[in-house]
Amino acid sequence: MGLTDTxxxxxxxxxARRSIRAxxxxxxxxxxxxxxxxxxxxxxxxxxxxxxxxxxxxxQAISIQGYSQGAVVxxxxxxxxxxxxxxxxxxxxYANRPFAQAPGLGLNAFFAFTVVITLGxxxxxxxxxxxVEGVIFMALTAxxxxxxxxxxxxxxVKFAVGSGIGAFLALIGLQAMEIVVPDPEGTYITLGQVAxxxxxxxxxxGLFFTLALYARGVRGSILLGILGTAGLGYVVEVxxxxxxxxxxxxxxxxxxxxxxxAGAFVSGFGDVEPFGFAxxxxxxxxxDFFDTAGTLTGVGQAAGFLDDDGDLPxxxxxxxxxxxxTTVGGMLGTSTVTTYIESATGVEEGGRTGLTxxxxxxxxxxxxxxxxxxxxxxxxxxHIALVVIAVVMLQNITAVQWDDITHAVPxxxxxxxxxxxxxxxxxxxxxIISYPLVKVAVGEWxxxxxxxxxxxxxxxxxxxVQTGGIMQAAV
Length: 475
Hints:
Distance between the termini: 78 Å
Radius of gyration: 23 Å
Helix content: 55-70%
Strand content: under 5%
Shape: globular
Number of strands: 4
Structural class: mainly alpha
Low-confidence stretches: 1-8
Largest sheet: 2 strands, antiparallel
């Protein structure tokens, strides 16, 4: 007796679902396909701004003879999508973690404005430094060195990273929503003109709509908030209530030929001054290393992945995915690829496995057909998710032993320095440097491990190089 078409389709579908559940180990993480897909879509929408921002930043430093700046931006958009897709695909299929990757915001600014524009290094040589950094990362990860270093982080720093990232996310989100703005009077930041700014008004409406959905336990509340806010922005603009382009994002025709960028790093090795080049690699290395470590630890804490010692089990796998992403990105023509803190939005939606990351990777690939489709979501709408997640991640602050001064000082500095310097790695550095100092001050120097002292010393050296003018003098 043969199978009917319905039976065959049902059988294929059933086997496919069972294969997916087994491959991504759904049983261990108590999840399902729909939850993972929704989480991936949420993460993608939240970090989609990088598809617009990364090309805009890098195009300030990269010029290609015979091509207009618009064409270069379009090429960089394609490269951004491909590198993000490849790196996140490795994270999904090799590491089985719900972490998404893309060229890092901040790292691209260092690449463009510091290395190329300020120091006068060619963009090809800067790409060569990124590739070298990625290869070093792969080697260190393969022998377990990166895992060993991260596990050497002081316990209060590990448990404070999540809250520090939460504060950092809040600042990023509130700035994109134009609720927090620069203050020309000298207090650095202040409240924007929220009652007269259409973006701020719509952002506030969207934020409280999202928070209300989240508080009621509505599944997909963050995604609904993003889409609802973006949709309302288009409606308001079409209705003529604001000027065109105020609340919506335009479309740029794509240029898919990336041959002027791909492989350009090779020529960069022909114009290298060894000491200056080593300092650039060193800086890329330090910033990316500890930014990634902080992100994996903080988002891992939000997902409930950390063990009793505050370590992420099998951390070497996501670290390797990050290293591969950096290497591939540099070869294609973009700055350092890193793990994104926006992954926390997908984790909050219930994403627990690599299927979440796989959805993000596939969406990056699909966006290649409609470059830049991802940019259709205005930044103010996508960044609402960051503020919501920031509130959730602040609850991790209770894991710190605040009644112990040797925990309170490094944890407090870790949390405070991240948003105030706009850098996850700097917050970790502050915590690591202060930990042995405060331990020695109270007579508990025996609690300090040799690796923690070495890490503190390396961070001090890094800041001397980075802020003491040594790099500028060497290049």
